[in-house]
Amino acid sequence: MADYDYDVLYLGCGHGTFDGAIPLAQSGKKVGVIESRLIGGTCPNRGCNAKITLDAPVKLTRAKERLEGIVNGDWSLDWGQMVAQKQAVIDPLPDMISGLLTGVGVQIITGRGELTDAHTIEVDGKPITADKLVIATGLRPNKLAIPGTELAHDSEDFMNLTTLPKRLAIVGSGYISMEFATMANAAGAAVTVLMHGDRALRQFHQPFVETVIDDLTKRGVTFVKNAEVSEFAQSGDAYTVIYGDGQSLTVDWILDATGRIPNVENIGLETVGVVFNEHGIEVNNHLQTSVANIYASGDVIDKQQPKLTPTAIFESVYLMQLFSGQTDQPIDYPAIPSTVFTSPRIAKVGESVETAEKKGDKVVTNQIKDDWYRQVDRQTLGASKLVFDADHKLIGATECSEEADNAIDTLLPAIEFGLDASQIGRIVHLFPTIAASAWEKL
Ligand SMILES: Cc1cc2nc3c(=O)[nH]c(=O)nc-3n(C[C@H](O)[C@H](O)[C@H](O)COP(=O)(O)OP(=O)(O)OC[C@H]3O[C@@H](n4cnc5c(N)ncnc54)[C@H](O)[C@@H]3O)c2cc1C
Ligand SMILES: NC(=O)c1ccc[n+]([C@@H]2O[C@H](COP(=O)([O-])OP(=O)(O)OC[C@H]3O[C@@H](n4cnc5c(N)ncnc54)[C@H](O)[C@@H]3O)[C@@H](O)[C@H]2O)c1
Q1: Does 120 share its domain with 65?
Q2: Is residue 336 part of a domain?
Q3: Which residues touch 318 (CB under 8 Å, ≥6 apart)?
Q4: Is 172 in the pocket of ligand 2 (CB under 6 A)?
Q5: Ligand 1 neighbourhood includes 20 CB (under 6 angstroms)
Q6: Are residues 253 and 385 in the same domain?
Q7: Do the beta carbons of residue 341 and residue 50 sit within 8 Å?
């Protein structure tokens, strides 16, 4: 091997990098990571961890609301304190992750990197070389290409607001829109969601999405379907969203939640011949790009799997196994679950109800209100739908409930390992728990 600075050099240091980079260094490889912002990337600093800390008081308030008459007294959410608590929870994470990296000998290089040849990334004019490069630059928020787009903000700005705007417009109705509409509404903002078409959260079971929308509507959130947003304007401290045939909405803050796009520009991919498209970097089944010694990991990959943290972790660990010689096999993705953290939540994994109905697979529905364990805290909204193949093995599941995330998560082994009835019978669960309640239905 030529005399490179590193065996493996990663561009970007989110979950697509560090979960694999740490054990890779432990395996004896010389590893470097380049990061222009906070170590840890989106998930800990401005994604999952930040968001779920803001969600925790909302979930608690919903439980209190259901138990009204048993749990009494006036409660309210203090947005300023919610954001302070979020910051206190996430502030230590970059140092903690940096410590894990440097503790095993990974070199952290701070700055913006750009590939200059197949073995070199330049940071602030300084070339750094490696045998293998991994591009893990993630996604960034889309900004609508309309007049006044600079007046709108992104999810990171929202989670840093110390004062909650009285009137909030959210453009788009995907994950970020629905989760942030839930939080902002619970904390007292007047929220309007401007939908691109007539369906929110398109990748989730639509009757469950309707349950969440109906509940948010009862709580005061306004959903405007088919609102083609054409302009943002400012007058004094207020902002106007122009949509449809010249309709307008006046608000105090605008959240552009119209999706996230891959960070593929201005990092030298064209220079070295790495092929990408609008969905991200194209890779083969070894996560190898069009240039043999350059790989990609995490959200920046163009892929079918959901662009989520567990996927990024699985990919970075796979690359570690590949680079350290533990495997030479193609990546074999497991069933990857996803959840939207609304209240109630919607979670899913495996074959969808829609596909099952088309294929003739069996779908079993259980209403949340009929589950005695959910009655202990008076949950009534939602249902679980389980999809079985001809051998009655679980191949898909989706649930809408306050505990949908945990209910779906606990079922993963049944799907991933194709457990049959006798194997399922060997698993004894703690009782009473969400897990026991979910497995009982198999
Ligand atoms: C608001 C929000 C909430 C989310 N909630 C969830 C959730 O609940 N559950 C879930 O599973 N997923 C969630 N996600 C998605 C999750 O955060 C991502 O899937 C995950 O962070 C992807 O990791 P990654 O390493 O691929 O990319 P990132 O974490 O984005 O890391 C990429 C890194 O590359 C750096 N970088 C980019 N270009 C350069 C360059 N030229 N030089 C140096 N560094 C560079 C960036 O600064 C960044 O740190 C959420 C995302 C958002 C935005
Ligand atoms: N719970 C979670 O796991 C979670 C939470 C937040 C974010 N994420 C990740 O972050 C990604 C980005 O989230 P997101 O909510 O920004 O994206 P998304 O893809 O979930 O939703 C984008 C929304 O914007 C709408 N849209 C697209 N173009 C538009 C236009 N021109 N005008 C108006 N609306 C338009 C779409 O119809 C959709 O409703 C997700 O795909 C996911 O990978 C995950």
Answers
A1: yes
A2: no
A3: 20, 287, 327, 331
A4: yes
A5: no
A6: no
A7: no
